[in-house]
Amino acid sequence: MIIQQFSLVGMIVCATWSQIGNAAFRQLLFPLLFLFLAVPFGESFIPPLMDFTADFATAAIHLTGIPVYREGNFLTLPTGNWSVVEACSGLRYLIASLTLGVLFAHLAYRHWTRKLLFLLASLIVPVAANGVRAYLIILIGHLSGMKLAVGVDHLIYGWLFFGLVMFLLFWIGSFFREDALQEPFSPEILPSPAVIAVPRPKINPAPLGILVFLALLPRWHVDYLEHLSRSSANPSSFVLTAPPPWSSVPLESDHWTPHYTGERIKFAEAYTPLQGTPPVTVFIAYYRNQTQGSSLITSGNTLVIPQDHRWGKTRESAHPLWVSVQTSPLPFTETLIRSDRQRRVVWDCYWVDRRWVSSPYAVKAWEAWSVLKGQGDGAAVVVFSTPFLSGNT
């Protein structure tokens, strides 16, 4: 979806360029490129921002002399528990600061050095300020016995602090502004052009028809590939047989399941090698003929959604974990999740175009390549999970 939105803005920019020419386009370059900031982006930055916020808050609390126990993004203080969720990542601060910083740098500065330095400050300051905000929120809650900064006032304090930080950033940046150094505008009076009669050119319809045909050819090719994809085999179910000594066991009544929607087929089963050992849950969601609302790679398809108050992520591997399965290496992403009653270790990876990948971006790229080859957009996510004790994985 984000690629489509960036492509749409790019089409608007290119269409404007083709209509107004190079000279006018250079004059409108900034406002046209500024349109790209209208696209909501940055979801991939949420996990590292959450980790930084948790690291900063934990270190600051330790320096204050307050004991704190951290497990992933969950912080435990003597007065209560805190968790750094997606809303605490500071992504909104970062996007707002970047947008305002780009506009201010363009209007206030003439030299690229000052523009780039202010943009760099617009990126660093909100990230650091969000860590300070999280620390102050936890400190207020701790000192008040969990009576303040635990409800709506939590959000109010955060936005007031962000507003103060932005005011200080632009106030300091205003001391170095250069917009007053702009040279005064002096319009140049040009002589009236001579009127020259130009004969009306003859229009040849052949080149125009060729251009129309070439413009429609990609669309026809895509329609043809979609027809091949929809007419190909589309399984409605499948059965997974566990090799010995593994055997299927019933799922627990309150078992954890990844949050994936819009799939063609969904499979969930638990297996164990011996009676009494913790079971391994296998979850598979298969997608084909993907459309909006029934696509594998979306922001809503994830292991744990922010709205789930029972489960939360405590750690996620930054690099894929390669595991050999029948001499074939599979790239898994390892994630630790927890609830009030249980902790689980989760391994997940994607299958697309007859290959295994761990990156969602690689999934979209291989899906597009598979469609161009006329083999459809079939893809699946495979998730293994099992309970574990602290210190054992």
UniProtKB/TrEMBL annotation:
GO terms for biological process: proteolysis. InterPro entries: EpsH-like (IPR013426), Exo/Archaeosortase_dom (IPR026392), Exosortase (IPR019127), Exosortase-1 (IPR017540), Methanolan_biosynth_EpsI (IPR014263). The keyword rRNA-binding does not apply. It is found in: Cell membrane. NCBIfam families: 8TM_EpsH (TIGR02602), EpsI_fam (TIGR02914), exo_archaeo (TIGR04178), exosort_XrtA (TIGR03109). It is a multi-pass membrane protein. Keywords: Cell membrane, Hydrolase, Membrane, Protease, Transmembrane, Transmembrane helix. It holds the Pfam family DUF3485. The chain crosses the membrane at residues 28-46, 91-109, 116-143, 155-176. It comes from mine drainage metagenome. Residues 211-388 form the Methanolan biosynthesis EpsI domain. GO terms for cellular component: plasma membrane. GO terms for molecular function: peptidase activity. This is Exosortase 1. Its main location: membrane.
